[in-house]
Each structure stands twice: as structure tokens, then as C-alpha cells.
UniProtKB/TrEMBL annotation:
Gene3D superfamilies: NAD(P)-binding Rossmann-like Domain. The keyword Coiled coil does not apply. Keywords: Oxidoreductase. It comes from the Bacteria. This is SDR family oxidoreductase. Residues 2-175 form the Ketoreductase domain. It comes from Sphingomonas corticis. Belongs to the short-chain dehydrogenases/reductases (SDR) family.
């Protein structure tokens, strides 16, 4: 039986991807710092093929423990690590508290880097394995008002591209998802220097949300396809087009958006 371990599995994209792979008959490990969210996600999956693992992705020791625990349940298989846990941090960069800056860097990149590094032996030992990282449309072009978040997602993009080349000799495929705006709890955070949430800022800008079910279907396709980065949603596709063909116009748009707040 194939096996996937999903970080950030207690809600949002992680939960939807876990459900998608479970429908295909896979064993699913759900990892998250939120025990309540883990229990809620697990209740949606076949009990005989799901396990929950409470962990903080910033802690390498917890990564080692969870990977070993999941491998013991899966017969040593790790067909996919979905390196998905992440948080948002929005608002003017000069207003972001240093502890919030540390937190977004540690969870969004250190956690992904630890997951990749420590899962490598398990992925290498599983024929046809895949590391799937959640990047973002904000990793296509730096996003004003999301500077710290955007920077960490660029780091995830860079790691994905580097490991796609480096781990090919080990038989490991490395992929990323680049979602636009997905209506999850991630957008409920307040913007630094503002009384608006990230979700309210998206709605106010007239931008659209992509359903988590769509993300889950594209995660399945990404794991089984040959594309390194998978764009998710209209915003991501428009941004990729503009970054390639209209970089000057995109730069002016970002500056205008920053001035408008």
C-alpha cells in the first residue's frame, strides 16, 4: 500500500490532499501542531489507513520521531512527503514584529528544509517516491504586502528546483504547488499595521479564491506528472504570464498596490 505523510494535515490544503490520496487507497499520515485539527481530519479518513502525529515542523528531533513512527506503520514506505505546513504574514515589512518574522521564516522554510533533509533516506528507499512542497504564487514574483511570506516561498521554490536535479540520481521526484489564493484559515491572520485580515484584503482587491478540492486534484497530478512547479488557480496563472511576458507592467502594478495599501 502506498503511503503519504502530510504536514499541515489538520486543516485546509493538507486536509483536502489527505482526503484525495485516501480515496485512491493510500495510507495517510497526518502531521500538525494542532491536535484538535488532526482529530477532525482523521475522522474524515478510513480509520484503518490513517495515523496522526502531533509535531512542530521547526523541531528536527520531532521530524525524526514522526518519520520513524510513520515508517513503522507503513512497512517502511514513504511514497510522498507533502511538505505543506506554513503560515501567512502580511502587511508592510517595516511593521512586522521580529518574533513574527522569525516564526514565518522558521515554519515556512526551516520546517520545509528539515522535512526534505530528514525524509531523504525514506524517500530514497521507496521506488518512485516524490517530495511535494507547497510553495505559492508569491514565489513567482515578490508580492508587496506579503514580503516575508513571499521570500520564504521563493526559498521553497529554489529548494524544489535544486533537489529536483540533485535527487534525480536517487530516483526521487521533487515537485511544488504554487497556489494563488485559497480560502483557508491561513488567510484569517491580521495584516501587520492594519485591522484587516489577509482574507479581507484579497476580497477587497477583487481577487478570486480557488477551492481546496482543486488544489488536492492538482497535488495528485503533480505527484504523478513531470512538471516541477504546478500553478494553482487563475491568480497564479496570470502572475506567471505577467512575470514572463510583461515584467515591467507587473512591477508597476506591485508598486501601485503597495501605495494603495
Amino acid at each position: 500500500m502506498k503511503a503519504i505523510l502530510v504536514t499541515g494535515g489538520g486543516s485546509g490544503i493538507g486536509r483536502a490532499v489527505a482526503q484525495r490520496f485516501a480515496r485512491e487507497g493510500w495510507r495517510v499520515g497526518l502531521a500538525d501542531i494542532d491536535a484538535k485539527g488532526l482529530a477532525e481530519s482523521a475522522a474524515l479518513l478510513p480509520a484503518e489507513r490513517v495515523s496522526t502525529h502531533q509535531m512542530d515542523v521547526r523541531d528536527a528531533t520531532e521530524w525524526e520521531h514522526v518519520l520513524a513512527e510513520f515508517a513503522a506503520l507503513s512497512g517502511g514506505r514513504l511514497d510522498v512527503l507533502f511538505n505543506n505546513a506554513g503560515i501567512a504574514a502580511g502587511g508592510p515589512f517595516g511593521d512586522i514584529p521580529l518574533d513574527a518574522l522569525d516564526r514565518v521564516i522558521d515554519i515556512n522554510f526551516r520546517g520545509v528544509a528539515y522535512g526534505a533533509r530528514l525524509s531523504h533516506p525514506y524517500l530514497k528507499a521507496t521506488p518512485g517516491a516524490c517530495l511535494l512542497n507547497t510553495a505559492s504564487a508569491s514565489a513567482i514574483y515578490g508580492s508587496a504586502g506579503l514580503s516575508a511570506y513571499s521570500a520564504t516561498k521563493f526559498a521553497v521554490r529554489g529548494l524544489t528546483e535544486a533537489l529536483d536535479a540533485e535527487w534525480a540520481a536517487d530516483g526521487i521526484r521533487v515537485r511544488s504547488l504554487m497556489p494563488g489564493f485559497i480560502d483557508t484559515a491561513l488567510l484569517a491572520v491580521p495584516m501587520a499595521g492594519s485591522n484587516r485580515t489577509a482574507r479581507e484584503a484579497v476580497v477587497g482587491s477583487g481577487l478570486e479564491f480557488t477551492p481546496v478540492e482543486t488544489v488536492a486534484d492538482l497535488a495528485w497530478a503533480a505527484v504523478h506528472g513531470d512538471r516541477v512547479h504546478t500553478l494553482v488557480g487563475p491568480t497564479a496563472r496570470r502572475l506567471a504570464f505577467a512575470a514572463r511576458w510583461m515584467p515591467g507592467r507587473l512591477r508597476r502594478m506591485m508598486r501601485r498596490r503597495a501605495l494603495e495599501g
